[in-house]
Amino acid sequence: MSEPAPTGVIHDIGYRHYDGARHGRGYTIRALMLHSLRGVFGLGRTARSKIIPFVLFGVMMLPAVVSIATMALLQRNMITYSDYAIMMQVLLAIFVASQSPYLVAPDLRFRILPLYLSRPVTPRDYVAAKLGAMSIALAMLIAIPITAVFIGELVIDMPGPPNTSGYVGSMVSAVVYAVLLASLGVTISSFTPRRGLGVASVIGFYLLTSAVSGVLTGVLLSMSRDDEAAWAQLLNPFFLVNSAQTWITGESGAGLTPYPDGLGGPVSALAVLVLIVLSVTAMLARYRKAASA
Amino acid sequence: MTILTTEGLTKRFPQVTALDRLSVNVGPGVTGLVGANGAGKSTLIKILLGLVEPTEGTGRVLGMDIATQGPEIRRVTGYMPEHECLPPDISATEFVVHMGQMSGLPRAAARERAADVLRHVGLYEERYRAIGGYSTGMRQRVKLAQALVHDPKLVFLDEPTNGLDPQGRDEMLALIRRIGTEFGISVLVTSHLLGELERVCDHVIVIDGGRLLRSSDIGDFTQATQTITVEVEEGQEPLAARLTELGETVTVHGRLLLLSVRGDETFDAVRDAVCDLSLNLVRLEQGRQRIEDVFRENAHV
Questions:
Q1: Which of A154, A216, A218, B52 satisfies CB 3.0 to 4.6 Å to A232 for a cystine?
Q2: Which intervals hold domain ABC transporter (chain B) (predicted)?
Q3: Where are the domains of chain A?
């Protein structure tokens, strides 16, 4: 009986050169953004890193679920779309604080940044991708529960017309919240390679602004200086966005006291823009410096 | 053909001058960049990648200007930094794929390239595990793999043998040699351990204090004197005496005998002497003048 001829042979084909496509900057920014976005939610990472983002997302959904239930059972919509982010601001702040350092701190701490910068990725691309990823994550966090409520409202077919304009307005403001919070959070975290310190700094920033805003507003209200109280409230970035939003949509605000009228709206909108620009500028400067170090 | 060239390259930091009017030419193949710590090796690489602006001078990498074409240069070069640069919580495969994408490779191509390159650098099943659990040798391989994943035309390897044990060092050096020959990728490799570069380099550049000490082909470094190293199990003294008698120039280096080669007759003399004294010959190899010696000579000039 003859041996069967070997049918499979492993060849060492040696080194193969790559002559396929090489994409440009747009592609690398998108790829880095997607990689970072997955990282924010802990996808492709250990189970432990999924806990915080998904628990926070679950809690974000709770009011939406309750609201849909009350609509179905009591025919009453408990939630104003534009108030959702204000109502959940502590949660959003915790999400920004816990996940922003995740985006930037490891690259600094484990010195992965030079590997990016020794590729066609520029500091500007890097900053754009990281801010984009955090903005998308936050926009999803705000928009998904509101959208769920809106779908609920449509399906349950409440008496009266659906609040479509309120929904659309809240989607736009979700994007503004997302970009502002991401800019502040990621910029603050990018200044330390230590994740814990980053988390503490971001949450500290939120607590400081909201506490100062809250105390000042309370004190001024008790002294019946309502005008100053209205302005003091804007120190909290959430109320700042809400103030700009109410100025544009004409809805009522969700603050402790009405926002300043007259100049209040335009000033709020401008302040939001200025905060975003300042943050991005600071972050760019920080990474330009890191690139040449 | 010139891979890279610099002209009067100078980099001054507030405290130190890292590079001082450095002009070098590097051809294809493996080029060693030798210098003590702080000689300006890493600064030179960063300038060549277009990441750090030189204070004065110009340079071209693969025909592209370092001042204006940084991104284009970085597209076709690879860089392995001296320092640790790996995230602990993801696998080598995932990391190298990501870095391939960051060089512009489509995801599918990056996957294929990452698998190829990791195999070439000698990482097999462990490449699916998180990098945090890797040994230093494995980390160095991952660092090398990420520099090669996009099939660059030139790689900058900054102290690739750092922290490796002797065996890991040999394997890394063999790999570098393969990159320069079999893979056809030009290599600029730095080291402060001068001796190890002569084994893998075609050309060596010696810098000190940011200035060029010497730049020449490896042959020029080592041709000057031809020596052979002889090792016997025991009885090196009688052997040395016997060889001296036969007219050879012998120096004893611990257990080793170093002989200057006069010609073929030197090898015959060793053979005959070992036979006559019935010694056990353990090693007979071509020794070369060490780059250290060249460096030392130059440094004292």
A1: A216
A2: 4-234
A3: 25-292
